[in-house]
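Q: Okay, next protein. This is chitinase from Petrolisthes manimaculis. I've checked the sequence twice, so it should be correct. Can you predict the 3D structure?
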Amino acid sequence: MIGYVTSLLALLAISIGGVASQHQQEVVCYLGSWAVYRPGVGKFSIENIDPTLCTTLIYAFVGLNETTNTIKSLDPEYDINKKALERFVNMKSLNPRLKVLVAVGGWTEGSTKYSVMSSAASSRKTFIESVVAFLKKHRFDGLDLDWEYPANRGGVPADKENFVSLVKELHREFEKHDWMLTAALGAGKSTVDSAYDIEKLAKYLDFLHIMAYDYHGKWDGRTGHNAPLYAREDETDDEKTLNVDATIKMYLDSGAPANKLVLGVGLYGRTFLLTDPNNPGISAPANTASAFAGPYTREDGFLGYNEICEKQTMEAGAWQIVWQRSHQVPYMFRDNMWVGYDDDISITVKVTYAQKLGLAGIMVWSIDTDDFTGDCSPKKIKYPLLRAINHGLSTHSDKRPHPSLDEDDLTVVDLDVDNDLDDNRYNTDDTRTSRVGGDGGGTVSVTPTLLSILLAFIFTAVLSH
């Protein structure tokens, strides 16, 4: 009887909110497990996950014991004693399509110990044996490698080939268990060139999760968007490599099959403190020493989307919201505070871009910074960004290209086909050689009905040629 009821609940969940079942692409959802320690409504527990909005859930992170070269929990009290890993894996009962992976590495883990572990066949073997035991014990469906980054941050040039060896040997072992093997890979050209043999990695990985964000931040000393889709014409040649389109084209040109590339989007923004509040545009001078943090994530230079939409809701009218046409993304500012972020509209553009190129799907970092409570929605709709991703993937999914792409398929995806956005949510920033042209408009809120009509029109216009 319990099993029967569970099955009915699963079917009900999928029929109501399981939009990931309405398309064939990947929706890869990372969870930053430390989100459970955030204060107030920012606290994110395993039970806050809606597994019907994802095809793959990834628990981040576990680490590497540098003495024994074995995989280890980074938070045994939460992971094991409070059964976070077990509760995470049990999400599969609510979505029969769902795969559940664990990610090893991350920024805080560094690079050096992964460099040492991968340098010898014996230590790689020890690591792989520990991974197999860990996955079996905790019933995961596979492993995600988040080494940030081979041959960088204390690594050595040989890491590039040693990483391939590690992936190849993991792949060989995982085939015996029908497990998935994926990797989160960097976006910057200098990192990619030094760290990855893309063609060889693609041969052994099921999917390559491209971290197409963090292109700009307070470290630049001037405002810049976290994840611009395209370059601006006034940028330098080096700057024109710092955008999603340049990154994806680089991976494709380096031998990665489109159907193995998963485009990463950040459900957060990068913050800045303007040097001059009267100059709040893109590439405006900003403080390099500090920016500002949110009440939940509490990281200088970073705001989760839940913190961004809360500011827009609770401080309505105080923030100027601007659509940067060349980059096809929004930013907002108030006094000397500036944030470049993605919202449902810009994410829809990126999903459309991924569909046109025939990519495998979309990855998000991370679900715990979406509006998972629905507090920013008048109708308390949870996970607006994840829902926008799934809606975008299911809309016109039959328009995806054939496996071989012609040059004509690589056209620019531009949401503002007729300057529709000028009269809705945003002011417009066309001072930096816009792709479309037209004058700026107001900041009237767009209604859900109008937004649906607008998106339907946009998708038809963008994908029909």
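A: Here is a summary of the prediction. Residues 121-138 form the longest helix (18 residues). The chain has one domain: 2-270+341-406.
Q: Noted. On to the next one.
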